[in-house]
Queue: 2 jobs
Job 1
Amino acid sequence: MQTFFEDYKTIIIFLHILSAVVWVGGMIAIKFAVHPVIQTIDEPKIRLGTNLRIVGRLFNLVMPFIVMSILCALLIIQGAGYAGGFIYLKEAIWTVMSLNYMYMYIQRKQAQTLFNRGDLAGAKAKMQLLPTILLPINIVLGVVAIFLGVMLRG
Ligand code: HEM
């Protein structure tokens, strides 16, 4: 494992950082640049439908990067011999972020089904917590994980 890590160190760390950029950056872009503009659409059906499509695309985009971030992290900690509190903390943060992501993914999928059936109120209720609580939680945790990464590098 050590030799593998030594040979591919640069690319492994690069892929770990790229995952963070896409996952955390994607959420920040949707929350602060895309979502406020969508809210200005007057027609409720178009507004909700656009929201569902954009969030759906973000969730599909970040899925492989979530897996890649933990795979690269495991290679880094094995290969470079990292241990200690910050590592456990980052593992815990990744787990909470992934569970939160899975919950949001399911909520959005169910909302899409309701929307397709014409149940706008039901779909809206399913999406309610995403921009106000769930996405901000993951943004804050993601930023903390990035900061801890910088601390670990030293
Ligand atoms: C939750 C998602 C995560 C994000 C957003 C993230 C982000 C980052 C970033 C941006 C860096 C680079 C810091 C720098 O170049 O100064 C980094 C480094 C690092 N991360 Fe993560 N990370 C995550 C999850 C994890 C997990 C789960 C672990 C291990 C259990 C981990 C272990 C590390 C280690 C050991 C480094 C230092 C790598 C080195 O030697 O250069 N990360 N992380």
Job 2
Amino acid sequence: MLTKTDPRSDAVHETSRPRAIVIGSGFGGLAAAVRLSGKGYQVTVVEKLDGPGGRAYTYNKDGFVFDAGPTLITAPHIFEEVWQAGGGRLEDDVTLKPCDPFYKIRFDDGDVFTCTGDHDQMRAEVARVAPGDVAGFDRYLDMSKEIYDVAFDKLAGQPFHSLTFTLANMTDLIKLGGYWSVYQKVSQYFKSPKLRIAFSFHPLFIGGNPFSTTSFYCLIAHLERTFGVHYAIGGTGALIQGLVSLLERNGGRLLCNSPVETILTDGDRVRGVALESGETLAADLVVSNVDPATTYGKFLGKRKRKRWTDRKIAGADYSMSLFVWYFGTNRTYDDVGHHSIVLGPRYKGLLDDIFVRQKVADDFSLYLHRPTAHDNTLAPEGCDTFYVLSPVPNLASGTDWDSFAEPYRQEIQKRLEETVLPGLSDHIVSSHYLTPQDFLERYGSYQGAAFGMQPKLFQSAWFRPHNRSEEVEGLYMVGAGTHPGAGVPSVLMSAKVVADLIPDATQTLPAPKTAAV
Ligand SMILES: Cc1cc2nc3c(=O)[nH]c(=O)nc-3n(C[C@H](O)[C@H](O)[C@H](O)COP(=O)(O)OP(=O)(O)OC[C@H]3O[C@@H](n4cnc5c(N)ncnc54)[C@H](O)[C@@H]3O)c2cc1C
């Protein structure tokens, strides 16, 4: 199902237009590739793995279809914009459906809080938990919209490589209270400990600790309520496949099983990439979708770097990692919704273990994905497809996942069996998992962090690796590691920022020195 173009087809690839190489086929890389193809570039995406998607890779195993990563699709209009920029229409390639309720949060005492897009239902749900917090909920949504209007609508799609631009917008950012953490901000509106959790956990979806992530991310409440939470028919992989098809229709190509070894330069300018196979590909510009720590620390080799030195890379705060267990059952669990959060007994204590003490805790807070709640094509008849993810420290914890993973998986299985999936052990017919070590080895993520650098105030915007490289001319950065950050809407925005920085292919570009490659 996934496109695996043979690298040998290089010989027949058209060479008359300016050439762009995108390293990595995550959502950010593919969106940048589509946008550049729409600007007239001849685009080649080189991907290390055997299929596209990166974090959004699709596993087809034992008759089950497992989306590896993103499942909650918000802001579908940003996908529509990518398709338009590539000369296509999203609805011709992918069907997105709204998901309502958005998700259910099961507290450790068994109480379930249902998050929906219906304002009255949400008010009633807040009132059920804490009647005194309803007015705070209304004010919280107003505040969330204010942040959204500035931080997302106005600034997320702008390049932040100029300090002057950053300073000019600093007043707006300070007025929004970006120096508060998400949890501190939420606590200004809600008194109930349960509601403080229900409205503050979202940074975990992008690798941040709610107790230290900048409160800009309170905008997610407005984003979800305005545009809804969606899923793609056929799974998130259908969006990846749709982007690949659009790219190919525009004359672009995807080369899988083609890990990049180095970015080739001529003086201070890129001139292409060298693959681990020894093959070289020439280009007028290169966009890297790979973690900036790897792009700068590995792909630029021993080249002297101005900003992103090994020391600066090592000194940043990286997101947590994830243990993700993908499993299929030979029965269905019809009372389990598409998205569930199964909380454990501790909130701050668990987050401190993950982010501060960097130790794997004995208790869990889990996200459970059951796409077959809406799409039975993803499992054999009468079966369910699941994944469950547990946030864990990144590899700085020193955990030996080779020996730790299977016992950890069994504990998660036990926890699910005790809470939402009774009898699970007797019904598992497919099983595999990803550990922090896999995030390092598969995706080249520094410290095995699942989401790159943490979304802290001083690791955002100008402080994050810039979309136009500070190190080499003609090199651009797209994806979770650059501005605006992790999460599908953000990485799609980063592709827009990159494409806006790059002139149309019809405008003059320095001639590539192909002879040297
Ligand atoms: C389990 C999980 C669940 C998530 N859930 C959600 C969600 O519900 N909603 C949401 O919005 N976000 C979610 N996220 C976050 C979101 O998935 C990511 O932020 C986003 O997909 C990252 O995309 P990216 O473009 O930065 O690149 P990535 O997906 O990281 O892609 C980078 C690509 O580069 C490739 N690569 C690495 N090294 C090389 C090399 N040497 N040569 C060539 N290619 C290379 C990798 O193989 C990969 O394909 C989730 C993430 C995870 C891990």
